[in-house]
Aldo/keto reductase
Amino acid sequence: MMKHKAITDIQGHFTLHNGVKMPYLGLGTYQADNEDEVVNSVKTALDLGYRHIDTASVYKNEEGVGKGIKASGLPREDIFVVSKVWNSDQGYESTLQAFQDSLDRLQLDYLDLYLIHWPVKGKYKETWRALEYLYANKKVRAIGVSNFLQHHLEDLMADAKVVPMVNQMEFHPYLVQQELIDFCNKNTIQYEAWSPFMVGKVFELDFCKDLAKKHGKSIAQIILRWNLQKGVVTIPKSVNESRIAANAEIFDFELPKEDVAYLDSLDRDERTGAHPDHFDF
């Protein structure tokens, strides 16, 4: 079972099954352009104390992310950098090449975490073999997957030498997937949220407004705190300085168990993104 330490501050972390410390709050960069927008948001987040930056080759902003990291002036080892291999690059040799291309764009020597972006049928096992090679050769400190349901994980793990360290999933009050979280916890796979705000839809929901009022916090802060209290790493995306700052102001309060349970109970298996079994690969 996964054991999580207390949620203390912006630079707190959950420990992956290989001992690597993964900061539990990060900056997502999906749809942040490759120009000043992503450079500034990455630098801003790092200036504010964030130590985890998430990107992907398909976001087409790795160069900008790399520039933002460089502009922060922080030592490389202080920042947890994540990227992902895209569907069209999956397969053994092509994944190794895609990884090197991502490193070159980021202007980095290694990644902290590399993920398979989607479970492309007939390809993800070969892709995983490439990730295991990169991990064994210390090109990456941890390897994992994204958008893998339980049957994908079971299929992958049947032949894998290394159990994935992370599974990054769409996660919000309308898509909790507690059984999948439990499966990941049982297999020491760290669960991570993408789209924690349901593409902005959480801000329209009355129950979120009620919880925000009850705790004197913003809806975003309630949702992110719920993520962390469930032991889920979260990477809210923003390019707005005040929102990036506000998203980190979640360490001075705690949601009581009944509020966590209430948010859990809202699960209706409703996605804002593609279903992993029906993605148009």
In short: The chain has ten helices and ten strands. Strands lie at 13-15, 21-23, 27-28, 52-54, 80-85, 113-116, 143-146, 166-170, 190-194, 233-234. The chain has a mean pLDDT of 96. The domain at 13-265 is CATH 3.20.20.100 (TIM Barrel).
